[in-house]
Amino acid sequence: MDRPVTPRTLRLNAADNVIVAVDALEPGTSVEGVTATQRVPRGHKLAVAPVAQGEPIIKFGQIIGFASKPIAPGEWVHEHNVEMHDFARDYRFAEAAREEEILPLEQRATFQGFRRANGKVGTRNYIGILTSVNCSATVARFMAEEIRRSGILEDYPNVDGVIPLVHGGGCALDVKGEGYEVLKRTQWGYATNPNMAAVVMVGLGCEGFQIARWKEMYGIEESDTFRSFTIQEVGGTKKTVEAGAAAIRDMLPIANRARRETVPASELVLALQCGGSDGYSGITANPALGAAADLLVRHGGTAILSETPEIYGAEHLLTRRAATREIGEKLVELIKWWEDYTARNKMEMNNNPSPGNKAGGLTTILEKSLGAAAKGGTTTMTGVYRYAEPVTAKGFVFMDTPGYDPVSATGQVAGGANILAFTTGRGSAYGCKPTPSIKLATNTEMYQRMIDDMDINCGDVLDGVSIEEKGREIFEKLLRVASGERSKSELLGYGDAEFVPWQIGATM
Predict the structure, then answer these.
(1) Which residue, 21, 242, 245, 490, could crosslink 40 as a Cys pair with Cβ 3.0–4.6 Å?
(2) How far apart are alpha carbons 330 and 385 in whole angstroms?
(3) Which structural domains are found in the chain, ordered by start?
(4) Rounded Cα–Cα distance for residues 21 and 243 (Å)
(5) Contact 21/280 with Cβ under 8 angstroms?
(6) pLDDT digits (tens, 9 = 90+) for 326-342
(7) Contact call for residues 234 and 132 (beta carbons, < 8 A)
(8) 79: which DSSP letter?
(9) Which of 392, 382, 385 is nearest to 408 (CA)?
(10) Contact at 8 Å (CB) between 467 and 443?
């Protein structure tokens, strides 16, 4: 007769007063010398020590919340008995900073990329249609549809496609304000992302975000790889669509001349994302992606961690890794800005996790943040950037963005990311053009259920695969996708609708 299988649990740090239920725990189940008194769903937490009301809940060796009532060993620990309140963090600026060992050029991994005239390297070769304002979004889509319907793309196999990247703003905003600056940087970042071979910019004409002003700010000249049109000046919808489509037809042979060549992995700029997180995110996929990010840094590349509201409560782990005190203080300034921003908008930092996150086992933003920060690996933080600022530093960096995935990723791509890795536990359906995205599942059950969307299963970490081994698997996948292998989201056609610039400030 087979013996009953003991459900699996994980203690993540010796100091923890909770453990994670890898498998669901039924009342009466004994694990780690504690008997469960309530059902604990998979991915959720079980108390293994008494916690008095007001005392901290410890996971990852860090505070993830405070007991809202006395918690006895064996109880399910979740939002019914955990609350959030502020507590002091010791930032220890630059305490753990170190000089990273970067492999010499001849020892670095390589991929097949598109070397651009400015020296940057693309992983894809798109023609983009950008819009200054939502009022020109339909015309941009009509231009792309005209090219698609014509079948002309079949004649240019080296071009990955023509993509309309439209948004919901561009007018009724303070043209001297923060929102304008963010949109300005975002559009410039996409226009110059190395995954773009050529760009058409289309506006209405009377909007707040003026193309002519934008071009003047960045010294942009009309060329065979950049054209701009305004509907009012060209003479309406039909004429603008015709003019834009004609410009794209002229660009196609130029873009098609691009050829992949062998380049070092140091040319990769990796956007780190997570969405639809669960209780396994901080245990499997996120630390595995962190290991891949460490590998990339060792090979001379760049990894961008973002989602400022989702490192809240874990920022002290990053400030310790800051290369300098100044870099660490820039991160803390962002945290303070977000505290003020949420207060002004009658919100709170703990509005996260989402209902789906909570169903997956996450209880507070502190718990989510500690897991999310693991995507950034362990190397020294060499820079902190505002949303959509060009990322110029090598190594591990941070960019200020909201936690909302499409908005966050848009900022990273605008900053220069030419490849993206996205961890998910609940099963986020996401893609990103012009930057290819690979999806990393935190658990095997979801990976198998959403196999058409997921690129890599990190759930096998719970079965004994090491974080280091999984990190190498992710790193190798990044190199293959950067070389042209299609990710699952690309095969499904995702990425056109996921361009979502951050809208800050009032709509007037």
Answers:
(1) 21
(2) 9
(3) 9-83 (2.30.130.110), 126-257 (3.40.50), 270-492 (no CATH)
(4) 60
(5) no
(6) 999 999 999 999 999 99
(7) no
(8) T
(9) 385
(10) no
